[in-house]
Amino acid sequence: MLQLHHAYAAYPAHIVQHLLLPQGALILYPSADVVILVNASSLSLVRVLAFSEAFPSTLNTTETIPCIAVDSGMKIVFATMNTRIAAWSLSGVQHDTWRIHSTLVLPENHTVTTLDSRSGLLAVGSQRGLSVYTLILENDLPTWSQKWTVPVPPPTCVRFAPSLMYIATLSSHDNAIRLYSTTSGRQTQIVPHPRPIMNFSWRQPQATSRDDLILYTVTNDSTIRIFLPVLDSPQNLQLHASLDLFSSFPFSIASNHLWQLPSTAFWLDREVVGNALKEILKQRIEQDDARGRRIKEILEERWDLFLRVLGDGSIVVTAVAATNPSKAIYPTTVVALDLTWPAFTSLHLPSSKSVLSPVAFFDAQTDGLRLSARMLSRVSEEEAKIVRLVRTPEGRGVGIIRSDGGGEAWRVVEQGTRLVRSGYWTSADHVVVLQGGRTFVTYSASNSMLTLHSAPPQNLSIQNIAYLFSVPSQDQDDSIIGITPDFSIVHLHAIHAPSPSLILRSQSTLPLSCRPKMILPVDPMAWGLRQPWTQPDVLLSISHAGELAFWVPEETATASWRIVPGSDGDELTIWDSHESEFATGMEFCGQHSEPIHDLDWTSTPDNQSILAVGFLHRVELLCQQRMTYFDEGPGWEKCTTIEIGSFISAHIQDSIWLANGSLLIAAGHQMFLYGAPPISSKKETLFEYAARHNGPLDDYHPQMILQCLLWDKVELVKEVIVNLSRDIASHGSNLNGIEWTSLPVERFLENDQRDSSVSTKRDIFCENNRPQWDLQNGVQRKIYTQLFHGPEQKKESDEEAFSRPLVKQLINALEACPLPHLTPNEQAHLLALVQATLEIDEQRRALDSSGLRCLISMRSFYILNRRASAPSSPESKGAHPIRSGRRGRIRYRDMIWAFHSESQDLLLNASIAACNGKLGWSDARALGLPIWLTSIETMKTQIEAIARNEYMAGENRDPTACSLYYFALGKVKLVHGLWRQAAWHKEQAVMLKFLANDFADARWRTAALKNAFALLSKRRFEYAAAFFLLGNSLKDAVNVCIKQLDDFQLAVALARVVERSNEGPVLLEILTDTVLPIAFKNGNRWLGSWAFWLLHRRDLAVRILLDIATALNIQVAEIGEPHYDDPSLALLFSQLRSKTLQAAKGTSEISGRSEFNFVLQMARVFCRMGCHVLALDLVRSWSFDRPSMVIQDDSDLVDQEKKLCPPSPTLSRRSRFDRATRRRSTILIDMHIPSLPPTRTASPERPPTGVSKITEEGEEERLQNEGDFFARKVGLGNLMKSAKQDVKVPEFDMDSFF
Asked: Where is the RAVE complex protein Rav1 C-terminal domain (predicted)?
């Protein structure tokens, strides 16, 4: 999703080192307190070795590493700081891992100035002399033992000879090279020079002559000197050749370069060049040209090559033939390239795989040496550690703030894959980056000066600023917000054209009742959304009590707020700023054992949020997850982790999102830029991942299909299934990257016609076989352009239309080849819903809407459980194992649909058929029969069937399995007869004797109760409940079911059967003391609505769907988080709000604003579920009652009714409540009007004109603005008064009242 594009390390300040590895070559150089390793060919960062890894006390030091050394044989890197030396080695197991090898601490005042190491020998030059250490391995623990030390002038450079017999040193005190014996430390020779020496090196020996001592030196005039051993004294060196500018050019040409910039000279490694030339000659065996002969000559003559870069960028290569003490030396100019090349300070050819093309290079062609990578120019500010990152509001510019107060401004280019430095500053207390990183503003607290770094710079004197940041602007200029220590808000404007300037717009304070604890800026989350109607939050104020308030600059804007609970430890909570009474705003809460150091937001083009959580060595990216019925998961989930521990051991200081979804991470002195993979890689980007997990769903997604089925869009689902079958049939098994057939949005906005006259097939089509839509004047209707004149359409065949063969074929295809981007759980649900759609379509004509919804979930429940427990079908050939777990029951939501259905007989038959005609208690509880069956006689019949099936289950025919149900039915004699057949049971004799007694006698009822308590002590809870029923103690039996068996459904079933009523005292006590507290604790509004409905508080059954009902006198110990994450709540509310008179009363007591916010919340849930088109359908089709005003007097009420209602003589005289009840042609009277206790505070009566109403306490009661509640009360009173005249009629036509 994100990959590393660039790592920005500091430019090398000293001569670099190189290390040749099998997988490539590395370049090493020190920077501040770290050693940086980069790839030799691409200059990409490989590793940062921090000195604090070996010496933790130097973690926050300001000291720097002056020099490093590399032992190429043992693959050890050395670095020094003051008197300490650290060594890292390449792991032998993990070849790309560097580990601490050893450490060495010198005596005090022996500050290290230079290092060199070869084959386990370490030469250390210090302020006090030269020392040599030997590596010793004791018990696999490397230690360094001092071999010798001699006092010498402080060396600035030390080099071991290839033979390890001598050590050459260079000091800044004189112009001489000193040679020392490695074995004894004795000085053997001093090699003087006429000028200061800049660099020197030993020539690497040939394989046949390892002991040759050949030394190259370079002085400050770019003259190369070659020193070779004396013939009769091989341990002494003498000058054999000098190569200056005049050695490479004729005098006339060389004199022209004397006035230019000084040239630099280097030597080319003969071994590396020789290996490259050998490979080229192997490829050019058949070619015989001038180029080949020149290369062959260089290789055979064993020339030593020296490269010189002149001040104008020209390159000259000089060859020295026969660098042998016994032969003469002949300098020859081999190459003279005229290039525009930067001045070199260091040159390394670490391997033959370099960017130097020998054939073209030695033929003096310009393409012989090409630039493959280039580092940024060096600035002194990059040596300080990065403290913080700041960005422009749109993320196209970023500022790097370092520990010394300096920093740089960078621009984001190339689609967020590269940064370009645009400027830097040396000292500032606050910095704001403007114009996409092109300019910046700095603030200095010392002189209270704000400076715009433009041409020319602009200054503005301003009071002390504690925080400074920029905010989005609609024009080309920039807005800047400053916060003072006393929490005043300073608004500034930076103008860039035509002339730059800084303007103070305003200075004000936030209208807060108390002083805030802090005020912070709010980063814009959707940088690309610049529509006029959007206004991002700018400021966030946090009070001492934990109150969050969001602010915008406009004076008319209001701040949203919420209370954030305190947390222990590092707790990450994510809140939604869209606050309402239906959502607390908290979407995620997670505990982290590691400290969280940084948080930063970004947003996709579809406004999907992504949060970067920064820890010490990694950054976790959290993406918003789609809500689903299928998986119980958090609202946010980690999508990927960015680890930088493989690059650097320093802690992450800051991470910040930039434009195009790029993430910049700062650690130590370095920056790491992560971005989207290139398009050619065909890898999924972060934004694509976020859209797939939180964006709109395809038509065929099981969640979309399920919601369409629940919202009475069965015909639409059938079309989706047909389209899915056609797409799969046309593409076969290759389903990746195909374009799925999608229905037009208008089709989702239709309502399915369920009468028998409507055909399920499309008989009339337009020319393109698609219906046309007329959206003029806001009216949507089909236009049949070819109703009479169009060609006769072909009827769809059975294979193409929705039918059982098509569904079977589709299921087999999905089992053999799962759809891409569907989880195994979603795949299983898709298969279940496709099959369930077929089965309900065959029965939907006999079911009402509520029954249809329950049947959908019931079919899906059993199909899914059957598929979860069964092996792969033969058709699937094991291609897609179903890993979706079994569910214990259908949801309470589906049980409540069945409860309100008028087709319970059909649902009961379907339930029994799903259990293969053997309905046991586990099946009845899973389907919620005790909850939704309303007929007592039917309930008794099913309990008897359950008892019979429980007894017949198994081979032993155990009477204890069915005693509870038969005792509830009062069939003690039947159980007695069953015990006669249980000869195998050890309790047969006792039970036969006990059940033979007459339990109408109080004596035997008491005996049954004693046995029940004895069974409780033996933890035989179900059998104990049976004996409680035998002892005529229903209350004790249901308590056992609730407390010991944790099965309130069994308690409800027993209470209803034993009391033979739905209004028995034990049942009502179960609902009040058990069911309602469970519903409130779990935030389950479905279960709470069902309980209130049975308690004949149907006004509360409606209100609880939108609000926590508190009018009923019940004891609720805990009220949990209300779960408004089910859009089907809106369906239930729309169905119940005018079903009965009580429900209509409860609806009238819900304010219009609450209903409006409720619908918006359900629409948000639809969007979070990926069903955006259903959210559109919900807000488009929801019917709101007209708003009403506060009653003032009769004339005002009449005027308001006329203004707010349509110009209809009938509707203009009807109140809101009247029209709410007219949604149904009939309404059930279920309330006694005089004795009904109010479910909310009574509305104050309207006093006569000019008279104030006085309360019992004598205080004047003001008329509060209760929205549209008073208008509803008027309508409710009129309706009740009329309804009271004839309360014996169970159902009546509401039209008779108007």
From this structure: 563-1178
